[in-house]
Amino acid sequence: xxxxxxxxxxxAVAVAGFAAIPTAAQEAEPAETESVAADSLxxxxxxxxxxxxxxxxxxxxxxxxxxxYDPAGRRDPFRSLREGFExxxxxxxxxxxxxxxxxxxxxxxxxxxxxxxNGILAFVQGRDSISYILRPGTKLYDxxxxxxxxxxxxxxxxxxxxxxxxxxxxxxxxxxx
Length: 177
Prior knowledge:
The protein is of the alpha+beta class. Helices cover 19% and strands 25% of the residues. The protein has helices spanning 2-19, 49-63; strands at 36-38, 45-47, 109-116, 119-125, 131-134, 143-148, 152-158, 168-174. A hairpin with a 3-residue loop joins strand 6 and strand 7. The longest helix is centred in the first third of the chain and has 18 residues, at 2-19.
């Protein structure tokens, strides 16, 4: 007997819920009063106002009337994570210093390496088509000269890639014959 009452109550709630959804031809909103559905035996009453409110909210959301996103202090999941970090050398906020301290590692072309009594030196050509002399420890815009050998120069380039374990990467430029 209890199973029959449960089935009848569920069916009554479902029917009341579908009856509360107006069709496209009906523009009038249903009344805000509580609706009560009774089972076929008339013994118990079920409150369906919460179901009607949920269905009304779904209909408004599907029609685009009342949907909005409130971040409440969290980031917007529909905006790019890379926003604000995407900039090229042309769009920089601050100008670079002149000369070698304003050159990036990728903008240098290795021209030659010589040995002197004071150590090994490297000659590079910058983006401004001027030749510069590099020594170990020379600072660049995004790194420094780590080591100079007889056939190569090792640069330590700063990296902002969060996937890398180290905040830098070693870039090797070799002399080609």
